[in-house]
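lol so apparently i was supposed to do this last week
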Amino acid sequence: MLPTIAIVHHCDCALAPRNDTLTSHKGLVMLVVMKANASENDVRVVCQKIESLGLRAHAIPGAQRTAIGITGNRGEVEPGTFEALECVQEVIRVSKPYKLVSREVKEDDTILRFPDSDATIGGNEVAVIAGPCGVESREQAFAAAERVAKAGARFFRGGAYKPRTSPYAFQGLGELGLQILAEVRERFGLLIVTEAVDHESLALVEQYADVIQIGARNMQNFSLLKRAGRASKPVLLKRGMSATVEEFLMAAEYIMSEGNYNVILCERGVRTFADHTRNTLDLSVVPAVQRLSHLPIIVDPSHGTGKRNKVTPLSRAAVAVGADGLIIEVHPDPDNALSDGNQSLFPDQFDSLMVEVRLIAAVLGRTIADSLAFPAARGHAGAAAD
Ligand code: PEP
Ligand code: MN
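anyway here it is w/ phosphoenolpyruvate bound
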């Protein structure tokens, strides 16, 4: 039996009582390390004890060990409560505001796997998600899907619900868009990544998609994050356009604290004074996040630059910096796209991009998939994380 870790969270807000020695404004987390020979039943007993204290236990399996995270709003747990247990090796205090997200809780990289597919996110293969900004028609989606699948993408992106700056701009096809995406999966064997903008769309996206995207504008929509945390599908969480690394990781923590451990982080550019691009793609966040968290992090050079001619160079850089994947907008007719045409690649440009990033990945000992053989039909259940 591998060692198991349980964490106890004591406080996560500045309003917590100052006389609590386990409390700080950063939030104090405790790790309860199980003995190496602890049985599954021992883990269950610890979980039950945690829950009997009115806190929540999270079992997080890893390659080396299983982690049991404990979350809750109140700091009522004494370390001795766990140290007294025979199966507990030690209790470690960690002063990180995020916990389930943290490498201290789970050392090994999280690798997301998908049913009936050998695609992964977070493993050795650099995942490529490609497709139009929005699903505009069956014809448009199929044309994009055919080309991105042929070029080696394993995942298809396309919004059925679009968060637009203007209420008069194309808002997406809604459920019809989701139905088209489901057809894309059937026809081309691509896994579907699509955005949910609110609770209502999330319920539908959860049914149709393989990955639920939460957009930059919703990164701190805490009730939506909690709902995504109760979803049965993995969540692609985009960084808010002014979010610090800590805020980004805390948003992921919201999702995980509700029991969904299948989270993929995505850097998509932040707002700066620079006006030569739509946003400033912060590639340094990739190694920064990888130090702090076991979650995969991918890069979106399309929204990160907003300009078609910068997407390929920044994709190369993202792979070189160690990103676990790319999400790229590709449209069969970008000049007539209903959203984000300026940053959408022509399919031929995407072909070249894939050739280039495959070479760069190889330098780092990583791979990028080749063309999928399709048609390939598959169902769509949830994913499993290591
Ligand atoms: C998108 O992926 O089309 C999108 C709206 O992204 P973001 O939330 O990063 O702006
Ligand atoms: Mn877009």
